[in-house]
């Protein structure tokens, strides 16, 4: 376990358990292994074995609603930086009972003054979350729920453990592109589902793009996106209302789309947990 604390040579990921199904386990597992590869951690098991361990753990937990969280570390070793003293990598997982529900109320956010991670570290889900923790603490100090990171070029990035999305006054859904931030499994799924609202004439288009703070602050609606939310409406940013300062209809329509996918979506997204009675 020592490497955990000394070097932080650890990547991690999460998947939601809802109604006895694991949601988007494969997308999370793929990202987990991409993170491991960037962190140069070799898994002690092939992907199929990791998946099977995670499923068996969920069965054993009997948990029907909560989160499955897992880590891959360079493994037990010494107090030195080089993982060459760690003979084998180690895989850990836990299941946490928790309430997973839709969010109907909006929250306030602030622009973070804590520097965001460079793209190499932001795109790899590793346990060095101190900047994320400090940015949440800063938001709480200012009476807000959480924060928004803006990159050095002035474009919107992401939140501390969530992606962010905007609906323009022209009814375009825009998400910041994923090249410098974490590729959110929920945000990616939203990009697949949201065109349904375009077909219905409720949204004009769905895209990823670079968005300036000025453009973003003048959007009609704004939201956080993440596995356990799946969408959290944002009604004010740096004490300035977003749109009319109320939870947006399109935000809630997107929340409904994701929620239906979580509770009744196709079996490509939902894996039934074979609990033993
Ligand atoms: C920094 C960061 N951005 C975005 C996300 C949202 O990703 P997901 O939708 O896969 O939960 C997370 C959560 O994993 C995160 O930690």
From TrEMBL:
SUPFAM superfamilies: D-aminoacid aminotransferase-like PLP-dependent enzymes (SSF56752). GO terms for molecular function: catalytic activity. GO terms for biological process: amino acid biosynthetic process; carboxylic acid biosynthetic process. Keywords: Pyridoxal phosphate. It holds the Pfam family Aminotran_4. It comes from the Eukaryota. PANTHER family: AMINO-ACID AMINOTRANSFERASE, OS01G0238500 PROTEIN. Belongs to the class-IV pyridoxal-phosphate-dependent aminotransferase family. This is D-amino-acid transaminase. It comes from Hibiscus syriacus (Rose of Sharon).
